[in-house]
């Protein structure tokens, strides 16, 4: 199973050493993030540093560590599915089109997101953090 992680999940993992970060780093699951969306993390860098108390170097270290467990999906793979993803998500939330396209690029992919916008579609399976928490702790992590 391939799990497409949305930006808010990564931001949550960056802000604090939470269950989200532990799931990303220790669950052994296959996490992916669209390379094209890395600008979103850069856009929120100052807010993440402020909320987490991380210095610039600390931010880069934590991000680097998290990205050791998250494979980047090449932009070309996402672009191939953008039109289909737009037909699913554009009217719901244009910011989520990239994540829908990433999920469509892999037949067995799901999206990890707590974003309620995904509830407005039925083509792509979406899993919330709480569901991963139950699975993670049930497996003794």
Describe this structure in words.
By secondary structure, the protein is of the alpha/beta class. It has one domain (2-138): Rossmann fold. The protein has nine helices and five strands. It has helices at residues 7-15, 19-26, 38-43, 45-52, 56-67, 75-79, 82-89, 97-104, 129-138, and strands at residues 2-5, 30-34, 70-73, 109-112, 126-127. Strands 3-2-1-4-5 form a five-stranded parallel β-sheet. Helix 7 crosses helix 8 (97-104).
Q: Please provide the count of β strands.
A: 5
Query: Please, what is the average pLDDT?
Result: 91
Q: Helix amount, in percent?
A: 40-55%
CATH fold-level assignment: Rossmann fold
* CATH H-level homologous superfamily name: 5'-nuclease
Q: CATH architecture, please?
A: 3-Layer(aba) Sandwich
Number of domains: 1
Return the structural class.
alpha/beta
Topology overview:
Blueprint: E1 2-5, H1 7-15, H2 19-26, E2 30-34, H3 38-43, H4 45-52, H5 56-67, E3 70-73, H6 75-79, H7 82-89, H8 97-104, E4 109-112, E5 126-127, H9 129-138
Parallel strand pairs: 1-2, 1-4, 2-3, 4-5
Helix pairs in contact: 1-2, 7-8
């Amino acid at each position: 199973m391939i799990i497409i992680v949305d930006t808010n999940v990564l931001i949550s993992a960056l802000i604090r050493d939470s269950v989200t970060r532990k799931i990303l780093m220790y669950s052994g699951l296959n996490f992916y993030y669209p390379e094209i969306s890395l600008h979103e993390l850069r856009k929120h860098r100052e807010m993440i540093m402020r909320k987490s108390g991380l210095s610039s170097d600390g931010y880069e270290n934590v991000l680097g560590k998290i990205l050791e467990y998250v494979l980047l999906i090449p932009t070309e793979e996402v672009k191939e599915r953008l039109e289909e993803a737009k037909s699913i998500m554009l009217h719901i939330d244009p910011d989520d089109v990239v994540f829908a396209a990433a999920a469509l690029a892999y037949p067995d992919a799901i999206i990890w997101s707590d974003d309620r916008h995904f509830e407005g579609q039925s083509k792509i399976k979406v899993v919330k953090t709480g569901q991963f928490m139950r699975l993670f702790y049930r497996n003794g992590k």
